[in-house]
Amino acid sequence: MTRLTPAGPTPAGPTPAGPVGPDDAMRIALAASARVHGTTSPNPPVGCVVLAADGTVAGVGATAPPGGPHAEVVALAQAGERARGGTAVVTLEPCAHHGRTPPCTDALRAAGIAAVHVAVADPNPVAAGGAEALRAAGLTVTVGTLAPDIVDAVAAGPLRAWLHAQRTGRPHVTWKFAATLDGRSAAADGTSRWITGPAARARVHTLRATSDAVVVGTGTALADDPALTARDVDGTPLARQPLRVVAGLRDVAPGSHLDAPDVLHVRTHDPDEVIAALHARGVVDVLLEGGPRLAGAFLAAGRVDRVLAHVAPALLGAGAAALGDAGVGTIGDILRLHVARVELVGGDILIDALVGAAPGAAAPAGAADGQVVATVSAPRPADRSGSTPDGSGP
């Protein structure tokens, strides 16, 4: 039976008035980090909560854009004197080095913090060591000792791409596509608007807004003329926009959406060269939107880390496949993914899967066969024309 996994910790709502424990404080910190996701690269989107000595929330902070204060400093400033003798709850180990800003370990010690709870250790050898530095200064520090579902949610949430980049030295790549149940991304005549419904398309625009770069091949650019911008339901551009990238040797069409000075054109078919060009620009989180040949090339090169498949309960029977040649010549080479999450988004199914996970890898805490986690929005309405055209979106 297909495993449909739970959504994880409940997102934090209004800040509680009474005392809270480290687990609940970390949920608040995670929600704070989510609000700045996509605005901090190449720095990590970190959330921090400062609890006063009586356990009440005294301050909440998140990482500012590069050059601005880190999450701990923001939360400490909000807490003021209430931080003295209190506890800091942070999604990522506080930094112990002096970069654009002073070490967060110094700020925590100066504020009189007595204890620190960290969800995830910092894998960056330059910034790591914060936990040990704080312990040496007499603070009580715990790392990764919270409820497993919270630690999992932090590592797989806003910090996912940054942690990946630190551990591998390259940006994290998510391949997003939309297809019918029979794997088609377009009809026999090339039309593709729309395979999935408004709720799925809205989800993609949110994803673009939290990504550093959105990449398509020249084939998709020429066939669909996508805008690759992040927009709200009425087509208005969102405040935060990703770097738009075209990969391939051909020119884009003059006057098209991607014929613009702020579009990066990487003239290569080599996924590693595309990734290197993005890495040089400080890109951490890449959204690969197509087309089939480019996605196949990235998969064949082992450069896709996550797959977001928006599957419509519909059939075409003929037309373009969602994926081109991915280097699989025999069933023994099949690329099997680890399903991390399944949702109903409007009337469509969203499968969130990881590439390269070990066969039989454990599902997130609380998963159960046959469990549906959530239904997002209402079933698809009959009228499917209420969104700004963009052939790269689902």
TrEMBL record:
GO BP annotations listed: riboflavin biosynthetic process
InterPro entries: APOBEC/CMP_deaminase_Zn-bd, CMP_dCMP_dom, Cytidine_deaminase-like, DHFR-like_dom_sf, Eubact_RibD, RibDG_C, Riboflavin_Biosynth_HTPR
Swiss-Prot/TrEMBL catalytic activity: 2,5-diamino-6-hydroxy-4-(5-phosphoribosylamino)-pyrimidine + H2O + H(+) = 5-amino-6-(5-phospho-D-ribosylamino)uracil + NH4(+); 5-amino-6-(5-phospho-D-ribitylamino)uracil + NADP(+) = 5-amino-6-(5-phospho-D-ribosylamino)uracil + NADPH + H(+)
Active-site residues per Swiss-Prot or TrEMBL entry: E72 (proton donor)
Sites where the protein binds Zn(2+): H70, C95, C104
GO molecular function, one term: 5-amino-6-(5-phosphoribosylamino)uracil reductase activity
Cofactor(s) required, per the database record: Zn(2+)
Claim: 4Fe-4S is one of the keywords in the record: no
Keyword field: Hydrolase, Metal-binding, Multifunctional enzyme, NADP, Oxidoreductase, Riboflavin biosynthesis, Zinc
Domain of life the protein comes from: Bacteria
EC annotation from Swiss-Prot or TrEMBL: 3.5.4.26, 1.1.1.193
Cofactor descriptive note: Binds 1 zinc ion.
SUPFAM superfamilies, per database record: Cytidine deaminase-like (SSF53927), Dihydrofolate reductase-like (SSF53597)
CDD domains in the cross-refs: Riboflavin_deaminase-reductase
Binding site residues for substrate: S192, R208, L228, R231, E289
Domain CMP/dCMP-type deaminase: 20-142
Binding site for NADP(+): A178, W194, T220, D224, G291, P292, R293, L294, A295, G296, A297
Composition bias type Pro residues, residue spans: 8-19
Coiled-coil segments on the chain, per record: none
Pathway named in the protein's UniProt entry: Cofactor biosynthesis; riboflavin biosynthesis; 5-amino-6-(D-ribitylamino)uracil from GTP: step 2/4; Cofactor biosynthesis; riboflavin biosynthesis; 5-amino-6-(D-ribitylamino)uracil from GTP: step 3/4
Listed Pfam families: dCMP_cyt_deam_1, RibD_C
Region called Disordered, residue ranges: 1-23
Similarity comment text for this entry: In the N-terminal section; belongs to the cytidine and deoxycytidylate deaminase family. In the C-terminal section; belongs to the HTP reductase family.
PANTHER family per the UniProt record, alphabetical: 2,5-DIAMINO-6-RIBOSYLAMINO-4(3H)-PYRIMIDINONE 5'-PHOSPHATE REDUCTASE, DIHYDROFOLATE REDUCTASE FAMILY PROTEIN (AFU_ORTHOLOGUE AFUA_8G06820)
Function: Converts 2,5-diamino-6-(ribosylamino)-4(3h)-pyrimidinone 5'-phosphate into 5-amino-6-(ribosylamino)-2,4(1h,3h)-pyrimidinedione 5'-phosphate.
Protein name (Swiss-Prot/TrEMBL): Riboflavin biosynthesis protein RibD
